[in-house]
Amino acid sequence: MSDPLSDVLRSVRLRGSVFFHLSCRDDWSALAPGASRIGPAVMPGAEHVIEYHMLAKGQCWIAIDGEPALRMQAGDIVMLPHGDAHVVSSAPDVPPMDKDDAALLGRMRDGEKPIPITFRGGACLVGVDLPSPQVQTLVVCGFIACDLKPFNPLISALPRMLHLRADEVGAWVAPVLEHAAAETGTARAGSSAMLQRLSETVFVDGARRYLDRLAPPEHGWLGALRDRHVGRAITLMHTDPTLPWTLETLGERVGLSRSALHERFVALAGMPPMQYLTNWRMQCGALLLREGQGSVASVALDVGYESEAAFARAFKRATGLPPATWRRAQALGPGWH
C-alpha cells in the first residue's frame, strides 16, 4: 500500500537550504519578512517558501500577527508553513532592530551563504559572527521551497506555526543542531549540500510528527489521513491512481456506502473523492512530465486517462497551462538548476 504523505513529499520537490546563523546577546529582536517578499531572494523561481528556525543555544520568542508569542528552548524547531512574516526576539516586548532589508535581500540572493548576523547591544551586524564565549542565543535559520501546483494538499493542512519541542522530536535533534551550527560557520566542501538535506529532513520529520499527534476527527488533509475510512480511501487512490475508481468501488473497499463516504470525505478533506482522484492524477502527471521523456499521450495513460485530450483539459485546469507548454516551462524555469 502507498504512503500518501511520502507520495506528496516526493512529488512536490522539496528544496532546502540554511541561510542565516544568528548569534545574539543582550536584548535583541529581528523582523523576518514574509515568504512572498523573501522567497524570490532565497529560492528564485520557487512556487512556495517555508521558513524555519532551529534554536541551538539559549532561548527566544517567535510571534506572528494574530497568534500568541511562542517561547523556544534550546533544541526546539519552529516552522512557518504558510510563509507568515514574524518576529524572533529575546523577549516578546523587545521592538525589532533596524536593518537594511534591501541590502540584506540582495546579499541573500547573490552572496555566500549562510550569512552570519550578530545582535548585540541594540545593534544588528550583518556578516559578523559574535565570538563564541559571548553568545547567549544561537539560531540557525533556513528555508524550504516546494511546489503548490498542480496539487499539494500538505501546506494548507499545516498550522501557521509548527512548533517541535526538543523533548518531542527525540534524541537526534541535539547533535543535528550542533552540527548545523558548526557547518554554518565554515566554508567546508559539501556544507551547502549537507545543510540542504538537513533542511528537508527537518521539514519531513516535522510534518510526520504533526500528523502523529493529530486526534480524529481533525479536518484538513492530514486529519483525513488519520481517519479510518477516508485515510484508507486516499491510500487506495495513491496506490494505483490508474484504476477506474468510483464512489461505489471505493466505498466497498473501505466499508462505507457511497453517500457516507462522499459526506465523510468532503467533511474531512474538503473535496469529493473523485475530485481528489483527479487532483492526484494531475500531480502524478506533472511528475512524469517533468522527470520523464514520455509523450503527453503516454503520460495520460500512465495516470489513468484513456484520452490525451481529456488529460490535457484537466491538466490545464489545474496548472493554467497545457501539458507540453508546462513541461517546457519547467525545463526553462529559474531556480531549479
Account of the protein in words:
- The mean pLDDT is 88.
- The protein has 337 residues and is of the alpha+beta class.
- It contains 15 helices and eleven strands.
- It has helices spanning 4-11, 35-42, 101-110, 154-157, 166-169, 173-184, 191-212, 221-226, 228-239, 247-254, 258-269, 273-291, 296-302, 308-319, 323-332; strands at residues 15-24, 29-32, 48-57, 59-63, 70-73, 77-80, 86-89, 115-120, 123-126, 137-146, 162-164.
- The chain folds into two domains: 4-212, no CATH class; 221-332, Orthogonal Bundle (Arc Repressor Mutant, subunit A).
Task: Draw up the topology in text.
Layout lengths: L3 H8 L3 E10 L4 E4 L2 H8 L5 E10 L1 E5 L6 E4 L3 E4 L5 E4 L11 H10 L4 E6 L2 E4 L10 E10 L7 H4 L4 E3 L1 H4 L3 H12 L6 H22 L8 H6 L1 H12 L7 H8 L3 H12 L3 H19 L4 H7 L5 H12 L3 H10 L5
Parallel strand pairs: 1-8
Antiparallel strand pairs: 1-10, 2-7, 3-6, 3-10, 4-5, 4-7, 6-11, 8-9
Helix pairs in contact: 2-3, 9-10, 9-12, 10-11, 12-14, 13-14
